[in-house]
Design brief:
The protein is mainly alpha-helical. Helices cover 52% and strands 5% of the residues.
Length: 157
């Protein structure tokens, strides 16, 4: 068994993580809805990332958002982790817009055979961005399915 906060190995009968000091009972009572309040009150020390999905966060909805809209970071916005969500959304949007614009300008058959060196360089970097976001999406699906995806929670005192 692993600690849902730090990921350290724990014995099954032990209720306390020896590495970070987190009690499993506290994580099971943690609240996801209190994350916005803690961030608004500038108390980020109350927010911890946990692989345990609290009762006020829907696991199936997170998985479905990741599967269908994960390249745009929808699952990150749902679990209140906007920075990775913005990175995914911007990266995938750049990738899609570039290929849509190029298919209208050059036609569908010439999208991948630009004659200009500058466009080939741009195409290479945009393709790298798209591939990274796509791989990140696949990894997120696997992490959510195996319940290793970290969600922010506030541990009740």
């Amino acid at each position: 068994m692993r600690c849902p906060v730090c990921g350290a190995r724990m014995k099954k009968d032990v209720n306390l993580c020896v590495k970070c000091g987190t009690k499993l009972e506290d994580i099971k009572k943690a609240s996801h809805q209190a994350v916005s309040k803690a961030r608004a009150e500038f108390e980020p020390e109350k927010v911890v990332l946990s692989s345990y999905f609290p009762s006020d966060l829907n696991y199936v909805k997170t998985l479905l958002l990741c599967i269908f809209l994960g390249t745009f970071g929808a699952h990150y916005f749902y679990v209140k982790r906007p920075i990775p969500g913005i990175i995914c959304a911007v990266g995938w949007s750049i990738f899609l817009l570039f290929y849509i614009i190029c298919s209208f300008i050059f036609g569908p058959s010439e999208t991948f055979t630009f004659s200009s060196y500058n466009l080939q360089v741009i195409q290479f970097f945009v393709s790298i961005i798209g591939a990274l976001v796509f791989l990140y999406w696949i990894v997120d699906i696997i992490r959510i399915a195996t319940k290793r995806f970290k969600v922010p929670v506030v541990i009740n005192d």
